[in-house]
Amino acid sequence: MRERRLSPRVSISAPADFLVLGESGVVDTGVIKDIGWRGCRITIGRRIPRGTIDVTLYLPGARRITCRGEISWQYSLEKEGLSAQVGVCFRQIDPSDLREIQRLVRLRGGSW
């Protein structure tokens, strides 16, 4: 059975930086694998604790987007030589940044 999504998503490959709040200023870098109006999936080099994070997205054809998010799920990818994929739900995002994400999703024909 296919998962029903609440917003359309598109596959992309773009860099992302994120800071786990509560850790001592450690900034991690990952790759955005897909993005939608409410969140994104990022491949990273380590498992991180659940909770709130600050995320900077470098989307193709868009300016840098900074938002606050929350880790909603994560799982290991040992077989691919990577540590984890992380699902991030956007919690605090500037309306103009959200419009930029929505524009990107529409241009790339996001699927439900």
Provide a descriptive summary of the structure in words:
The protein is mainly beta. It is built from 1 helix and 6 strands; from the N terminus they run ββββββα. A 6-stranded antiparallel beta barrel has the order 1-2-3-6-5-4. β4 (52-58) and β5 form a beta hairpin. The longest helix is centred in the C-terminal third of the chain and has 13 residues, at 95-107. It is globular and about 35 Å long. It starts with 8 loop residues before the first strand and ends in a 5-residue tail after the last helix. The relative contact order is 0.25. The model has no long low-confidence stretch (mean pLDDT 82).
What is the structure about, briefly put?
The chain is mostly beta strands. It has a domain at 1-12 and 24-84. It contains one helix and six strands.
Defining traits:
mainly beta, 112 residues, 54% strand, globular
What count of helical segments does DSSP give? 1
**What are the segments in which pLDDT stays under 50 over at least 5 consecutive residues?**
none
**Radius of gyration from the CA trace?**
13 Å
Roughly what fraction of the amino acids lie in strands? over 45%
Largest sheet: 6 strands, antiparallel, barrel
Order of helices and strands: EEEEEEH
Number of strands: 6
